[in-house]
Amino acid sequence: MTIDQRLDELSRQWMEAERRGDTQALDALAVPDFTLVGPLGFILNKDQWLARYRGGGMVTHEMSWADVTVREYGDTAVAIGVLAQRAAFQGTPADGRFRVTQISVRDGNRRLLASLHYSPIAAPPARP
Question: How far apart are CA 78 and CA 68, in angstroms?
């Protein structure tokens, strides 16, 4: 299986688990010291990331991952793509399209999420 196929599988499992709010699956897909950087710059450790789904605080209705480029550095892979989601956090819409950097590490024959970094998508600032 190529790195692209492994990362496609990891991404499919991650998005499916988020849509289901499946904290057991998300826990199994991420390293113990997983870190998420949200689109507004906030940071969540693994426990905080999983806690958003416990009790239904975070609800993801739809999620897609496209325009992905992958670079591999030994046991680490960096995938950058566009994530589109229809979601809500504590009843407040959290819909959007984000540029996401997904960092994964090799664990035997599978890959685990080490970090996700969400950024708003906007045009570069105009030159003065």
Answer: 10
Q: Do residues 103 and 74 make contact, with C-beta atoms less than 8 angstroms apart?
A: no
Sole residue written with tokens 């998420």 = 36
Residue whose tokens read 């426990």: 47
d(Cα 54, Cα 58) in Å, to the nearest integer? 8
Residue with tokens 């196929």: 5
Written as six digits, the tokens of 61 are 């209705």
pLDDT tens per residue across span 18-38: 999 999 999 999 999 999 999
* DSSP-derived 3-state class of residue 23: helix
Of residues 7, 17, 97, 76, the one with CA closest to residue 52: 17
